[in-house]
């Protein structure tokens, strides 16, 4: 008689590869899937009755900012309760490693705020730190170009000299050898915004030598959207590296309807041999820091220099006059404060409301808030049009990525009013757009959260529900899976994800995280 540690019995199995669903059982032994189908007679330590439920691979979130989350609180569970079993951190040019002491001097604010000692420098040391702390799910990392540039050049708005470029390339080389999955950029954020295309190409050539990927928050998602897509394609073409465009979207009413043109450019690039794909979160709003909405010249030198400029009346006047011309100025009534430590009552209010309360123009009020919070004012930006979201969602090169973090309603990770995507991205995509509206088939929808991102990032033994693969699984109620988190009340867990298994260990039971830390750090290695 066959013996298993866990059996999921009589579920609707969706394998993640896009195959039609089938009725059957899943047998798990240790960390792996042992058998799929009719198990016949067996013995098991634990049986899960999945009658009426969907059984699929655990979801893979390729675009996250959980770099510090698990160090602050290993029980950061907002993602695993969505069915996410793997996250890729280090996105938008911002990563925990590799980093030098110079880089830390510009970038340590988040770690200081969360009470984390930034006592590592390399990718290997960061991954070891995560392992020692414990993880509820699997984590791999990209290297952030902004972190690397700050580590060599600080926040200087100039080209690197030959020695500086070689130093950046050496950091990329070492990081790839230590298991990073590739390089990310945030070309609208300082210091990444000061880099020209050729600099990124040179770094991506190193990534290409190690079989990695280039994931980019493009330079502009508004009025210069098409030009920014062209730049990402050019970088892929010249370096040979696969390109992953982060959180593809169209910003601003003047640009609504451009999704079709943008997607045709991506199709043309793929036809010409450039490997371009993208991820998307299913919302009409994004999130960033108010610091990023200010003009790039004002951000040179980092936050301290920026705050000094705000204290100078002439420079402040210029900053205020240019804020409304920035890509992320979506209108003062559409920019909402997500977190403001000096006065929590401002959280959830728009810049227009705060400006009215203070008797100031919204852009002036924003500068006040930045001064009072030492430059750290996360905001939510309402920018989108539903038709563009749907056009992007149904494109064959799209996979799901939250652009959020693993959070928890309590403690340091439960403060403020963050974007609800951190709690609801995957159930929203599956529950609303796939199961309720039928925008995609359930098999294709699951594929875009499992095998497609696994293939893209080289996760060879994850993302498909098949014998001998790692047992990362989600068991969902198709009648109830949906997001609950809202912009006004974001710290709410999604519902309908009944069980989640990570590396063969049950981590979510009856919709609740039970505290198991069975996650692993994942490493990408150079192909032989």
Mean pLDDT comes to: 96
Second CATH tier, the architecture of the domain at 1-82 and 407-484 and 493-518: Roll
CATH homologous superfamily annotation of the domain at 1-82 and 407-484 and 493-518 = Urease, subunit C, domain 1
Low-confidence stretches: none
Derived from helix and strand composition plus strand pairing, the structural class reads alpha/beta
Proportion of residues in extended strands: 15-25%
Can you tell me the CATH topology of the domain at 1-82 and 407-484 and 493-518?
A: Urease, subunit C, domain 1
* Global morphology: globular
User: What's the CATH first level of the domain at 1-82 and 407-484 and 493-518?
Assistant: Mainly Beta
Q: Report the radius of gyration as a whole number of Å.
A: 22 Å
Proportion of helical residues: 25-40%
Query: N- to C-terminal separation?
Result: 41 Å
SS elements, strand count? 21
| Tally of helical segments | 18
Reported for the largest beta sheet, the result is: 9 strands, mixed
